[in-house]
């Protein structure tokens, strides 16, 4: 479910030398070292990031773990649910449901039928 996206950054020579010294310790390439540092920093500062985004009325999409917990809870309570309602309850895009239905159908024993998510019997 995790998608990735590429970007380019520019670092000072000082910072790049630090990154290079971490190759083999924090990752196998400069890119993997930087990605690890950024991911770790974002995880440690998630509440602060959310507060900054809320000031701009921007909401972070829920994490994969949050979606899975919500889906598990929802699917215990419903036999049949509209796709749009599931998207609203999980605070995710309808397209994300469609993209992940193959994985979720096995995990939660559900199928899509028209505009509905149905629990298999």
Tell me what you see in this structure.
This protein is mainly alpha-helical. The chain has two domains: 13-55; 64-119, Arc Repressor Mutant, subunit A (Orthogonal Bundle). The chain has six helices and three strands. It has helices spanning 13-22, 30-44, 46-55, 64-77, 83-90, 94-108, and strands at residues 80-82, 110-113, 116-119. It has a three-stranded antiparallel beta sheet with strand order 1-3-2. A hairpin with a 2-residue loop joins strand 2 and strand 3. It is elongated, with a radius of gyration of 19 Å. The two termini are 26 Å apart.
Radius of gyration: 19 Å
Structural class: mainly alpha
Q: Identify the strand order in the major beta sheet.
A: 1-3-2
Main sheet summary: 3 strands, antiparallel
Helix share bin: 55-70%
Could you list the spans in which at least 5 consecutive residues all have pLDDT below 50? none
Structure summary, number of beta strands = 3
């Amino acid at each position: 479910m995790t998608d990735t996206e590429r970007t380019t950054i520019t670092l000072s020579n000082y910072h790049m030398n630090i990154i290079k010294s971490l190759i083999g310790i924090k990752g196998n390439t400069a890119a993997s070292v930087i990605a690890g540092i950024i991911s770790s920093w974002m995880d440690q500062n998630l509440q602060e990031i959310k507060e900054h985004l809320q000031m701009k009325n921007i909401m972070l999409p829920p994490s994969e773990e949050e979606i899975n917990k919500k889906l598990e809870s929802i699917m215990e309570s419903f036999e049949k649910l509209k796709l749009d309602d599931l998207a609203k309850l999980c605070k995710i895009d309808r397209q994300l449901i469609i993209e992940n239905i193959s994985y979720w159908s096995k995990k939660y024993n559900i199928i899509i039928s028209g505009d509905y998510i149905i629990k298999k019997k």
